[in-house]
Structures are given as C-alpha cells and as structure tokens.
C-alpha cells in the first residue's frame, strides 16, 4: 500500500503578520512548514510527500527545506481548493493508493493521528480527523441569536484528510468541470461527489496557526520543550583571519559587501562564517573546519562557506543538538560592517535554525593597531552555545 501526503502551503499567510508568510516563520528555530514536512517524511507509512506552495515562494521554500529529500514543489492556485487539486494532480503519475491532504500551518500533527486516518481508510473512501464541539453553540446572523444549535452532532474538523486517491482525484476534477470552486476543505469536495466521509479522533494539539499570536505561542511552546529535552549546555569558540587581496568585495556571514579588495582564501574566505563553524564544532568536541574541509582539496576552491556551516549543523543534529545562541565579533577597519548586520542575521537564521534574536553580530576596529589596523585583513571571533540531550 502506498500513501502519499500533500502538504498545502499555497496561501499568502499574511494574517499572521511579519515580513514573510506564516508557513515560513520560525517556531522553535525551524520554519513552520519544515516541522510539518518532517512529521510526514518520518512517518513509516507515508511513502511520498508533495508540497504545494504559493507563487513567488520558491526561494523561501528552498531555504526552509534545505537538506530534506522532497520532489519539486507544485505552485498552488488562487483558492485552497485549487491548491489542493493541483497537489493531488501532481501525484497522478505515481498513482498512490491513498492520499493525505494536510495544512502546512498545522505543524503539531502527531504520528498517532496520521496512523489513525490511514487505518480508517480500510473502512471508508474518505476520512477526516475531528473534535466534538464541547461549547454551547448559537446561530446568530447579524449578531442576534435566533436559536441554540444542537452540538451533539457538531465537529471541529482538522487535517490530514485522507482519501482513496483515485476517488478524490475524480471528485476534484468533477468539481472543476461543474464550476464548483468555493469548497473550503477536501471533505467538502468528497461530499459534493457523493462520497461518504468518516470522522476519526483528532487531537487538540493539532491546531492551525493563523494569527501572529498563534505563531508566538507556538514558538514559546516548542522552544521550551526543546530546551527541557536538551539540558546539556556547551559552549565553543572559533577564530579566523584572512588577508586582503585584489577584488571587488568581501563576503561575511554569506553577505557580499562591496569593497576595493576581497579576502584571500581557498573557499569564499568568509572569515565570520568560518569562525562560527569552528565554534559549533568546538562545542560538540569535533575537529576544526580544516580537518573536515582541507584547504588542499580542490573541490572547496571558491565554495560558499554555508557548506561548511551546514556540515557543522549536520553533526550537531546527528547528536539531536540545537543552537541556543551565536555571538560573533568582526574586527575590520574597512569596509563598514554595521549597515549589513541585519542581512547577515537573515542569512544565518535559517542555517542555524534559530530566530534572529538568538544571533549577535558586532563589528569593531583595532584603532589602527596591528595588521588589521593597517587594513591588511579581517579577523572574526565567534562563540556558539549549544544544547544536547544527556
């Protein structure tokens, strides 16, 4: 039996505020959508995961899913129904037996709920998780109560909504042919096509993040849990120096800063990122950056230093560790670093899987003392604090 999952992230996500859509905002150091994708990628019964993203979100998706094994995302449509249909259509070539359709903005989906929905598809063509309504319900058009609604048969529904693949694909195609384009979930599409839909137990934790408040609360909850689970706190330091040579700019923390010279090095000579990489490696007792990426190896010539930093993060992740804080100091008489600090933090945040407020970048000079004072090069110092399970 093959089970595919369609993760729907085609919306603008603007109701949550912020500079980027909610599905790409960080909770617990990782984008919301990454938590969701990892939940399905790690489930033993899910054989294929297909993401549906908004037009123009390609770079955000690429950064959020770096290191994950996924097929290319599908661009969504103008409505949720259309985005879901396009995601299901993208599976037509592999023809899974069953498909789960899930909101990317529900990152707290549990393996238990996923398993329940898949299991219930043995007995029904369409299954959705839900919670019975516990509160008294009123029907009140225009804010005036007309009657009390019997809550005994009312449910709050969630995702993933599960279907026999061929049948939900046919239902979506029929809805489009007949001009039915305003369904708010896939169960409604199934109902329109005459498919009985079965409800199985949902989970209170499987809530959808909609507002800025939702995202903030989720971040605090996840961060607190991650820290409690990782009581072993360690600190590492890294130092790097690079001299100048003829060029048109220096790269620091992945940001190219225009200058009359560049830094000399076998890779892109990003002294700040090199120092940070060594700090992380030091915190987990690993060999330094030169051991993992020898300067004598031609494959690293001109390579972006993000490769090195991601390797350090991979080694940290292998021990189930996380970054708690990163603190960098850059010593340079020129160029001016301050105007570029915000851009540097924006680059480092997804690489380190932490919010920008857990990254400090400072710049100072040596008051014209020594080689750096003579503008012969740049130095970078970094301290990284990590947390590991015992």
What does this structure look like?
The chain is α/β, with parallel strands linked by helices. It has two domains: 3-226, Alpha-Beta Complex (Spore Coat Polysaccharide Biosynthesis Protein SpsA, Chain A); 231-388, 2-C-methyl-D-erythritol 2,4-cyclodiphosphate synthase (60s Ribosomal Protein L30, Chain: A), CATH 3.30.1330. The chain is 31% helix and 26% strand. The chain has twelve helices and 19 strands. The protein has helices at residues 32-41, 58-64, 80-89, 111-120, 165-177, 186-192, 212-228, 271-283, 289-292, 306-318, 341-352, 370-373, and strands at residues 3-9, 26-27, 30-31, 48-53, 74-75, 98-103, 126-132, 137-139, 147-149, 155-157, 161-164, 198-201, 232-246, 249-252, 255-258, 261-263, 322-331, 359-364, 377-388. The strands form five sheets. Strands 1, 4, 5, 6, 7, 10, 11 and 12 form an eight-stranded mixed beta sheet that branches. A hairpin with a 2-residue loop joins strand 2 and strand 3. Helix 3 packs across helix 5, helix 5 (165-177) crosses helix 6 and helix 8 runs parallel beside helix 10 (306-318). The longest helix has 17 residues, at 212-228. The two termini are 38 Å apart.
Task: From the structure above, extract its key features.
390 residues, alpha/beta, Spore Coat Polysaccharide Biosynthesis Protein SpsA, Chain A, 60s Ribosomal Protein L30, Chain: A, five-stranded mixed beta sheet, 12 helices, 19 strands, 31% helix, 26% strand
